[in-house]
Predict the structure.
Amino acid sequence: MTAEPALDPETFRERALASLTTARDRTTLLTSCVEDPDLTAQHSPLMSPLVWDLAHIGNQEEQWLLRAVAGQEAMRPEIDSLYDAFEHPRAERPKLPLLPPAEARKYAAQVRGRVLDVLEGAAFQGGTRLTEAGFAFGMVAQHEQQHDETMLITHQLRKGPQALTAPDPEPVPLFTGPAEVLVPGGPFTMGTSTEPWSLDNERPAHRRDVAPFWIDTTPVTNGAYLAFIEDGGYDTERWWTPEGWAHIRRNSVRSPLFWRLDGGQWLRRRFGVTEVVPPEEPVLHVSWYEADAYARWAGRRLPTETEWEKAARFDPATGRSRRYPWGDADPGPEHANLGQRHLRPAPAGSYPAGESPLGVRQLIGDVWEWTASDFLPYPGFAAFPYKEYSEVFFGPEYKVLRGGSFAVDQVACRGTFRNWDYPIRRQIFSGFRTARSESV
């Protein structure tokens, strides 16, 4: 069984207000730290112009909280199609008649002003499924934070001088704990039916049986990944799936994205700054193909999504699945590197207060972790409140990532949260850890 947060309506109201405010503060930072030309430019065909994300955030908030929840008339129905993510691929969005930065800011602010009025009088019990426990407000806060992470990716892809700053994570002693831990076999509860703001692909809770397996105590580090590179990992076909091998040869992939070799030293570009690759940090900006090849080279494999969640949530002392590795309490700064508090992963072995009952660290925050699994629905899945959030993406084309990164806010990150992307993706804040079956 999983724990259901026992919160009354006023607590949900306060949580919704705090989550919406935190998201908007971050959106403001990400769109005010550069001049208008950087907001309207497309810094990569993989990403939207920042100004598109800004107005899209406002438009989604209007559609769900003002129209669907409050029943208000549309403020600007003529822009709905411009900011429909399914109608216009990212590469085409710069050609659209988008709202200019000042107008996009004004629109988003006007929507938010009305939303705060709706929130003040909203009933979080006995209403519709959208309003129960403030679900729609939580969904919108998660949506904005997800776009904030997308905009942070755009900032990483952006050429030019540094625009964002943040303190580095606290230095920690070199991790000397065990390299891997054994996760016992047997059943556990995967997913959730009680987390009030969980999204449809996390539901419903269901029983899974898992054979015993070993999993890395920390994510794979840059130093470990360098050993793979130096051993000819990118030149040895047997470590790669046929699709992965074809992809790296076709695109001349030789290292993680943003890395380059200069005079025998590996450097990386991080938010406009070039620096030496830190060996103690979890490796970042690798595709699923690269993660899978490394695991094969190391004589291991990527964990399945089920294995990852059991390692993150299962408490062998009680047999219960926790909300987070450390328990049911919301994340604090001692637990995980979240919320753009830092602009890099913390060294491997950080956050001992956030480890799982089995001693696995950094399962939440720092880097999204690729798993071996395709993105598929759970038994009993039901799309809510719209099919385009999850259902249209189910299938073998997408691989599941778990755990969140330093770019993820806590409202959009929990032990059951599921992310997914194409196996070629590298601009995302992705890393991995490896596993092995007990008998191997």
About this structure: The first helix runs from residue 9 to 32. Confidence is low (pLDDT under 50) at residues 1-5.
